[in-house]
Specification:
453 residues; elongated; alpha/beta
């Protein structure tokens, strides 16, 4: 690693202290040793350390006491805890209090080396990363977004599992990517996986890999998502969609930091950070018995809630400007202006699909607008949803009638948008599909549905 680093190791067993000191010494890390909390605190006051490793059970207190002391007095010092085998509750508590990571006894030296390497990258990463860098990726100056950016910077320095909650389309994957790129694992892979998109029978092989011949059709060895993310971050999107049998296997892999490919006799240790997300209410699913409580407890060490567009309306003009620039650049078109009426309409719209919906609305509007000005009609917003208050009317006695009216209105506006796009591209269906943000197959289906020749 070039420079020599200095670590503080706290444990009341001399053999373990010696083993840890030797292991870190081979990595160019010098160590100071302490056998109790009070000695450790005295050492921390006297020296500057790059890394700290503490046992949980000490003669005059616990590792948690030390984690809290370090968080308060030396917030930039990464501290990892050593827990008794199987005592996940203590590990999770330590992570919630601000521990960087944990390692179980008997200490796996490979895991310890990975942990130390990751911890020592943190100060460098923090210096390189400035809060404004993420501002251009996670837009908005509302209090909600400033709060999220601050939390991302803090969470990037930890290895604690983060559960990212929020409605569909709010940007949960973007948040996960930022936690990865601002942290010490930035140079390694970020592997996103949509848990709801993997067929159930292939799930175990996708996550953990398989050996050649382990089942019919397994013609070669295959590495799984855990191995692909080694050294980096595995992002479990729509984690609520995991079937129960897979939840058990995932929990074990996270707790043991090891996986066993299908058909293999041996386990492989894996060094990854787990981030997960879903738009569903996971706590309710736990109460209803649809999601394992122990897995929820393990992945939800820290929860980060991404706000909906309705909770950050002041960011809408900035988001609109960003997407107009992005879409016109991608399409090679001139950037249109937004009329005041169209701007007002967007400002008061409910955005059930959040940021993703805003991007789709603007993409369609750019295609449909004339004279380089986006008018209210070009936005094609359903009238009943322009104001969140009005959505309640859908639940009135006229609900069925209004739903039919809404469907007819949406069909009519979609039909008109398709005809406009076809005229604009001189009936080139491939070009029209691209302008509308549809695949050719989706356009063909709609042409048939609306009887457009």
């Amino acid at each position: 690693m070039g420079n020599r680093y200095l670590a503080l190791i706290i444990d009341d067993e001399p053999d373990i202290l010696e083993l840890l000191k030797l292991t870190l010494g081979r990595m160019d890390i010098d160590s100071h040793l302490a056998t109790d909390v009070s000695t450790a605190k005295a050492q921390l006051a006297r020296h500057h350390y790059d890394f700290c490793l503490t046992d949980m059970r000490l003669p005059d207190g616990s590792g948690i006491d030390l984690v809290e002391h370090i968080q308060k007095n030396h917030p930039d010092l990464p501290v990892a805890v050593i827990t008794a085998h199987g005592n996940m509750e203590a590990a999770v508590t330590a992570l919630k209090k601000g521990a960087f990571d944990f390692v179980s006894k008997p200490v796996d030296l490979g895991i310890l080396r990975n942990l130390a390497t990751t911890a020592l990258k943190i100060p460098d990463t923090q210096k390189q990363t400035h809060n404004r860098r993420s501002r251009h990726q996670l837009l908005g100056d509302s209090d909600a977004m400033q709060g999220i950016r601050g939390k991302i910077t803090k969470l990037a320095c930890s290895q604690a599992p983060v559960y990212i909650s929020g409605e569909s389309g709010t940007g949960k994957e973007l948040v996960a990517r930022l936690i990865h790129t601002k942290g010490p694992r930035a140079e390694k892979s970020f592997v996103p996986v949509n848990c709801g998109a993997i067929p159930e029978q292939l799930m175990e092989s996708e996550f953990f890999g398989h050996k050649k011949g382990s089942f019919t059709g397994a013609t070669h060895d295959k590495i799984g998502l855990f191995q692909a993310a080694s050294g980096g971050t595995l992002f479990l999107d729509e984690v609520a969609d995991l079937p129960l049998h897979m939840q058990v296997k995932l929990l074990r892999a996270i707790q043991e930091k090891a996986i066993r490919p299908l058909g293999s006799q041996t386990e492989q240790s894996v060094d990854i950070r787990i981030l997960s997300a879903t738009h569903k209410d996971l706590a309710k699913m736990v109460r209803d018995g649809e999601f394992r409580q122990d897995l929820f407890y393990r992945i939800n060490v820290i929860e980060l809630q991404v706000p909906s567009v309705r909770e950050r309306r002041q960011d809408i003009p900035q988001l609109v400007e960003h997407f107009l620039n992005k879409i016109t650049l991608d399409m090679g078109l001139e950037k249109p202006a937004l009329s005041n009426e169209a701007q007002q309409l967007l400002q008061h719209y409910a955005f059930p699909g959040n940021v993703r919906e805003l991007e789709n609305i603007l993409e369609r509007a750019i295609t449909l607008c004339e004279n380089q000005i986006i008018q209210p009609d070009d936005l094609n917003l359903p009238p009943l949803s322009q104001n969140p208050k009005n959505t309640a009317t859908l639940k009135s006695e006229n609900e069925n009638k209004e739903s039919v009216e809404l469907e007819n209105y949406l069909d009519a506006t979609e039909r008109s948008a398709i005809i406009k796009a076809l005229k604009k591209t001189r009936y080139n269906k491939t070009a029209a599909a691209k302008l509308l943000g549809l695949s050719f197959r989706q356009l063909r289906y709609r042409l048939k549905k609306f009887n457009i020749d």
